[in-house]
Amino acid sequence: MVSATTFYVSPTGNNSNPGTITSPWATWGHAFNSTAVRPGDIVYFRGGVYQMTSDNLSYPYAPGCGYNVSRDGTSGNYISYFAYPGEKPVLDCGNITPSGRNSRAIWGNDMNYVHFKGLTVRNVRQTSADVNVYGWVIEGRNIIVEGCTVHNTGGRGFFSTGHEIHYLNCDSYNNNDSMSASLPGNDGVGFQNVDLNNVDGSIYYKNCRAWMNGDQGFSAVSVGYLEFDGCWSFNNGQMQGEGHGFKMGAVGIEPPPFGPLKRKYTNCVAAFNRANGWTTNDNQTFYTHLMHIYNNTSYHNGHPTSYAGVSYGFVIYNTASVDAEELARTYRNNISYQNQHGATFIGSGALYTHSNNSWDISGLTVTNSDFTSLDSTGITAARQADYTLPNNSCYNNFLRIAPGSKLIDAGVSVGLPFSGTSPDLGAFESSAAPSVPSAPVYVSSSIENATPARLEMTYNMTLANIVPAASAFTVRVNTVVRTVSAVAISGTKVLLTLASPVVYGDVVTVAYTKPSSNPLQTAAGGQAASFSAMNVVNNVAVVNQPPVVNISSPTKSTSFVTPATITIDATASDPDGIVAKVEFYQGTVKLGESTATPYSFTWKDVPAGTYSITAAATDNKQARTISSAVTITVEASPGTVNQEPLVIITTPSNNRNKKYKKNEEILIVAEASDPDGTISKVEFKSGEVTLAEVTSAPYTFLFEPSDTGKFLITAVATDNFGATSSSSGIELVIALFYDLNSEIIPSYPNPTSGQFTIDFPSGQAENWSSVMVVSLSGTVVYKGIIEDQEYSKIIDITDSAAGTYILMISNGRDIVATKKIIKK
Questions:
Q1: pLDDT of residue 747 exceeding 80
Q2: What average pLDDT does the structure give for the chain?
Q3: Beta strands, E only, 295-393
Q4: Higher confidence at residue 612 or residue 748?
Q5: What H or E segment, with its residue span, contains residue 613?
Q6: Given pLDDT bands bounded at 50, 70 and 90, which one contains residue 434?
Q7: Rounded to 5 degrees, what are φ and ψ at 197?
Q8: Which residues in 326-417 belong to E strands, given as ranges?
Q9: Is the pLDDT of residue 738 over 80?
Q10: Which domains does the chain have, with CATH numbers?
Q11: Rounded to whole angstroms, how far apart are CA atoms 489 and 470?
Q12: Parallel, antiparallel, or unpaired: how do β-strands 624-626 and 609-619 relate?
């Protein structure tokens, strides 16, 4: 079932809310698992820090397992979990101590058709060497992770297996397993893929960054297809892990059939890593893949004195594969410069296909002057608002080829776009004319009946989540400017929230003036043009007008004589529809209804009394109007003697042995009837003092005595002709406290000569803690402890004077029972 609902999550929300923008949910786990979320829906996470909670956790539902993501979209109708436009939601897991061997923030197990955007995960803890940390686990099919970040975990940042998983503009940094026993930092990886089962698996990384991780920036051990385009891996290997920029990964000792392309690296950068820029990470016991490594740059890897291994730009090992398969590892148009031990390391017996790399071209020596800049300042800068790489000096100049460099046009065509006669070497084309992205074109606008305060503009292309200021839009309603209070973007639509709703018949126009900052645009940068006033389709339905109804007969103050038959006539009409029915009421009691003209009802055998009658008309669209009330009187026939009403108090019973506490709420209920009329009121009295007056059934009163003593409570009923009668009185005894459990505590003998026994009810001793005996003057003559398994207790007050004593039992906080003891 395809839906199109928008939900919201906020740090100040509540999971019992409906998930609207004004009543949002509270936790990521609830949003990831609520059955209200369906294919095509969007869930917006408002900005702020969300502390990890213990609800909606993955199997086995223990702290550290991570939030499960159980909702699936469908093809063409992804479920979207997005940061609210212009805001940054952060899931902080620092308060969670994992109870098992795994510690995760999010575990998307077997997901389908889900799109994440703009979400940040941090502080997933490694609390011991036995705990494996995964910041964000993706397992499933057709998943998009866009503009998301994982940082400061105790292990892996992003971890994934599956089919058609796309990472776009994501960052992973400061992930270090500092507590690992053998090699601290060896599992600190920015992006990792481990999959030895899905030979048809596919994962794509585009413009992602990984830095300051304990081991690799990007690491793979997989039999599936992996593609890396425009990714940056730098400053990895922060502890005792290796610290490769890209670990390409081998096939295990039982490889799938050789043939399909398994690895593709294009336009990527590896710099300042502790070990190598790229490594095939295989050996003579493993098998290789078909690989394409094209137009990448490996710069200044190695150099730290703390690493004893090799540090090259590219490392290629010998494998158990035959020569023809090893030669399917193809390297073209790559640059390897200023790496500690050299451009490449080729293992003994290793073969690979290569040409037009910086180490292949005879007479070519790469120098600093071949680059516009080697200054990496700003390499960790924050991304732009649309999550693309930073627009700063580093990303515009660092490792880009300088004009006149011999690296220009030194490559060979590998299917990537280039300018000039041939491709340049390295990750960046030096003089490629920037392609002009297509601009989104305005299509139409409408206001729907369900959302009369929201104007929806539609474009022909999906728009980036870059929101212009409200001042960029001008909305006029009947030529008068209507204020735009909020702007949001969803797919191809721009949603304008108006200060007040439009109504049926309003003529609406909208105009857009492209602002200098944050204009409407696509992810590729194509910007929407300004346009003047365009007509808006107003789909707001006409407002239904309520019906009109009046009682035409009887008229006000008309009198009848018992036994009365009264015909009630009403006139009713509807200005924009039809009257569906007219109902007739006496007070709140419905007498009857009529569904066709003439609207009339005959009320028979009406007893003496005064009555207020109304008519209620309902139209064909359920609008309802109640007429003005008409008061009529039915008088007793001549010679009829009015009979007194009847009244009794039913609750509480008249039990003089029962005591109530001061200020305790005591419900008093009376029943009253009149044999020849109606009850006008029932008064509750304490002696001659009126406590309350009730004019309609049920006749109840909540008595809260503010003093101690005895109270005689009566109920007095008055009928419609003024006759009164009183109920029998009930006596209420009010004390400072009452003996709640006195009757269930046997004591014997009582009276006693000094020694007596008390029995505790089954199961109560464990809730009680002590017992005391005090004189009426307050002197404690006995005090003892009640053990949990004690069922009776012998108490000795032999040395006390004869008289009356009070036995008290306490639960440690309150006196829960008392009993009078007579000492002979």
A1: no
A2: 89
A3: 297-299, 314-316, 329-332, 335-337, 344-346, 353-355
A4: 612
A5: strand 609-619
A6: very low
A7: -120, -45
A8: 329-332, 335-337, 344-346, 353-355
A9: no
A10: 1-154 (2.160.20.10), 442-538 (2.60.40.1220), 548-635 (2.60.40.10), 646-735 (2.60.40.10), 742-823 (2.60.40.3080)
A11: 12
A12: antiparallel
Give the alpha-carbon dihedral of 279, 285, 287, 292, to 10 degrees: 20
Could you list the beta-strand ranges (E) of 93-173. 102-117, 120-122, 132-146, 149-151, 156-168, 171-173
The answer, yes or no, to whether residue 737 has pLDDT greater than 80, is: no
Write out the E strands in 184-255: 191-195, 202-206, 209-211, 218-222, 225-229, 232-234, 246-247
Q: Does the pLDDT of residue 703 top 70, yes or no?
A: yes
Residue 202 belongs to what H/E stretch? strand 202-206
CB-CB contact of 41 with 3 (8 Å): yes
Q: How far is CA 777 from CA 270, 636, 750, in A?
A: 90, 66, 20
Contact 622, 546 (CB under 8 A): no
Q: Give me the mean pLDDT over the 278-306 stretch.
A: 86
3-state helix, strand, coil in the chain (%, to 5): 5, 45, 55
Burial of 773 (0-12, 13-18, 19+ CB in 10 A): buried
- The yes-or-no verdict on residue 377 having pLDDT over 90 is yes
SS3 475: strand
Tell me how far apart the alpha carbons of residues 750 and 820 are, in angstroms, rounded to a whole number: 9
| Cβ contacts of 18-26, under 8 Å, gap ≥ 24 | 19/43
Task: Provide the pLDDT confidence category of residue 479 given band limits of 50, 70 and 90.
Answer: very high
CB-based burial label for 544 (10 Å; 0-12, 13-18, 19+): middle
Residue bearing tokens 């074109």: 441
The residues that bridge with 299 in the sheet, in sequence order, are 271, 337
What band does 678 get if pLDDT is binned at 50, 70 and 90? Answer: confident
Residues 148 and 118: beta-carbon distance below 8 Å: yes
Angle subtended at Cα 813 by Cα 811 and Cα 815, rounded to the nearest 5 degrees: 65
8 Å CB contact between 462 and 543: no
Model confidence band, residue 658 (pLDDT cutoffs 50, 70, 90)? confident
The pair of structure tokens assigned to 430 is 């030096």
**Tokens, residue 256:** 């799938």
Q: What is the mean pLDDT of residues 348-370?
A: 95
Three state DSSP letters for 511-550 = EECCCCCCCCECCCCCECCCEEEEEEEECCCCCCCCCEEE
Q: For residue 708, what are its two tokens?
A: 């101690």
pTM of the entire structure?
Answer: 0.56
Amino acid, single-letter form, for residue 279: T
CA angle 415, 223, 102 (to 5 degrees): 120
Q: 304-313, 648-657, 664-673: lowest mean pLDDT where?
A: 304-313
Q: What is the DSSP letter of 325?
A: H
How close are the terminal C-alpha atoms of the chain, in Å? 84
| Rg of the chain on CA atoms, in Å | 42
**CA–CA dist 477, 482 (Å, integer):** 6
pLDDT at 446: 97
Q: What is the DSSP string of 242-302?
A: ---SEE---B-SSPPPS-SEEEEEES-EEES-SS-SEE----TTSB--EEEEES-EEES--
* pLDDT attached to residue 740: 47
Backbone angles phi, psi at 823, to 5 degrees: -100, 120
What is the average per-residue pLDDT within 345-367?
A: 94
Percent of the chain with pLDDT over 90: 62
**Which 8-state DSSP code applies to residue 32?**
H
In 557-626, which ranges are continuous DSSP H helix? none
What are 785's two structure tokens?
Answer: 């402890």
Residue 265, strand partner residues: 228, 293
The confidence band for 433, taking pLDDT boundaries of 50, 70 and 90, is very low
Q: Is a pLDDT exceeding 80 seen at residue 816?
A: no
**Signed CA dihedral, 511, 515, 520, 524: sign only:** positive
pLDDT for position 431 = 67
